[in-house]
Amino acid sequence: MTSSPALRLAVDIGGTFTDTVLAGAAGEILASAKTATTPTDPTVGAAAGTERVLAQAGHHIGEVTGFVHGTTLATNALIERRGALVATVTTEGFRDILGIGYERRYSQYDINIDKPDLLVSRAHSFTVRERMSVAGEPLTDLDEASVDAVIEKLRAARIEAVAICLLHAYANPAHEERLRACILARIPGIAVSLSSEVSPEAREFDRLCTTIANAYVQPLMGSYLTDFETKFTAQGLTCPILMMTASGGMTTLETATRYPIRLVESGPAGGAILAAMTARRCGLPEILSFDMGGTTAKLCLIDNYKPQTTRAFEIARAARFIKGSGMPVRIPVMDMIEIGAGGGSIATVDRLGRILVGPQSAGSDPGPAAFGKGGQEATVTDADAVSGYLDPERFAEGRLSLDIQTAQRALTRSVAVKLVLSARQAAIGVYDIVDESMASAARMHAVESGKDLGQRTMIAFGGNGPLHATRVARRAGVSRILIPPDPGVGSAVGFLHAPVSFEVIRSLHMTLEDLDADRLNGLFDGMAHEAEEIVLKGAPGAQLERRKTAFMRYRGQGHEIMITLPDRAFTAVDATAMQEAFEAEYSRQFSRAVPGMQIEVLNWGLTVQAIQTQPDNVLQPETMQHAALRRRTICCDLTGHLVEAVVVERSAMQQGDRLNGPALIVEPQTTTLVSADFCASVDPFGNLLLVALDAGEDLDD
Q: In sequence order, which residues have a C-beta less than 8 Å from that of residue 606 and are 6 or more positions away?
């Protein structure tokens, strides 16, 4: 009797499509599928994709030994305001933390400024009498009478979730934990989030906002994750389901249910992992990751094979590119810029006669007009279809035939008539606008990070990434592009290479002059116990590795920079090494250190992750046929004229083949456009390599 093969399954639920990937024991992709997301019940689309890939590979779900899931549900709930009715409970005298915020306007001279919607009205902001010192010492005990009064107000308002954020609870959570116990004893089943668990660090406004966001999506995500697990268990799944997190790691369903805010941006994190893995394999330390799906486009800078990370980002900005116009959240997350630019992004014309694209999306239902499902608005996919870039019979693995005439009518009605253009000219306008939006976002992200895009290679994936890669790269000043295997389901492929991990942050203020090594070691021991317990639930028996960090600044500064620390016990003499590491990083970021300034540490971090045992490469098919060419009339994205483009199946290309643009390289879940100023070839790892032609070669070749 032979043993069952080790199979790993990844499911990424996006706003438009659900991507599913099945991989074998050696990391090879056995099957993949792209199915329409089912907004009313996302598990339906996920189940359909799972059934399809298992049928393609000739396996059944009982053979699956690893299951990783990522979803946009938490993100969309926050953006679309579809969460629970939330109330806050803060320390007496601090009711208006949300209203005060940072005590500044994000746009100083905008008289019609839209303030960020922080989810909780003042009427649902309650307080209790208590006080904790910054050192975690009780100054005023939790007053039971004030607790009883708050509980009655919660009942009267029919509150569904509570965000508790008491003063300095990160230093001592006793009052928050007692308050939660009292609420649950009187109102069983209500969702309660504690700031001391969700975001246990200083800065009251950020800590409260993060706790509110967690509470807001907790009932929805708890119900969803329970239904998801129940459905797949009923189908025969026997292995645990792990959830992708925003930091690029995986965690258990239990942890995801407690901290659903960590699931925000989990899908894009998988894409960044794929890009970093591809960069390492190809020896490319500086990368621009470009992930364009049906609803959004995500761009991330990768240096030394690691995506940039951050501990602070904003949700649902009122002004898309202006910092401070959204809801601040402090969780570990990959640092990327995301804009509403995808295949389903809707094109309109404003009163000034300008074409606008996104952020509104047609989604999967009804979807772009070309889908023939009743969509009336013109979208980016309609523009690409009218321009000839999409094969009507091959789109979405041949299960969805594009209706080009309906796409033309939508473009004519939404754009062309208003600007006195033809449908083809309207299509050019739409994709020019969206491509420039993505390129400008990339340039802005690079400038904010002090990086140069010119020397970077773009790694493009997602359902629409390869189709728009050359057009975006040209505008962003990038001359080399890699398209990895299975790019249409790239984020799901990235899920399969993510480690089981968890990060813990704690606030403990110290100056390097007065470094208390014993207290610091005790802090890290407690953090390690918490993180290791969570990681081992997701990876029983795994070897663990730890990464310690310190968030340091010159005394009096407002923000910190992260410094990596050695994974060992500390002594007082380590203060010198910490100072040297801080000054080196400070000099790198700001050109010079500041002599004679006292250095302090506000927060300490510990990341624990399971050491991965699966191979770090994706096997390619053993044999390939030579490319068989055919031709198709498309609109040249450089001149706007109709030209004949070579069309080739990606599976028919092999290393050594060279293809000059204009050309289309088609595969089941996406199409790569090779513009007239680019050439394409296949590298030793099965990636498509697109390189900009020299100035003398471009249009005459």
A: 503, 504, 524, 527, 528, 531, 546, 547, 548, 549
Domain with CATH 3.30.1490 in the chain: 501-610
Whether the CB-CB separation of 279 and 303 falls below 8 Å is answered with no
* CA neighbor of 430 nearest in space, from 410, 415, 443, 442: 415
For tokens 């459905």, the residue is: 231
Q: Please tell me the distance from the alpha carbon of residue 57 to that of residue 522, in angstroms, as a whole number.
A: 51
The tens digit of pLDDT for each residue in 467-520 reads: 999 999 999 999 999 999 999 898 999 998 888 888 888 889 999 999 999 999
Measured distance CA(133)–CA(137) in Å, rounded: 5
Residue with the larger pLDDT of the pair 613 and 439: 439
The per-residue pLDDT for range 584-616, each reduced to its tens digit, is 999 988 888 898 899 999 999 999 998 875 444
Q: Where in the chain is the domain with CATH 3.30.420.40?
A: 7-78+223-263
Place of tokens 């340091």: 552
Q: Does domain 7-78+223-263 have CATH number 3.40.50.720?
A: no
Angstrom distance (rounded) from CA 215 to CA 199 = 12
CA 279 to chain centre: 19
561-579 tens-digit pLDDT: 899 999 999 999 999 999 9
Euclidean distance between CA atoms 415 and 318, whole angstroms: 26
pTM: 0.85
In CATH, what is the architecture of 501-610? Answer: 2-Layer Sandwich (3.30)
Inter-residue contact 565 to 163 (CB < 8 Å): no
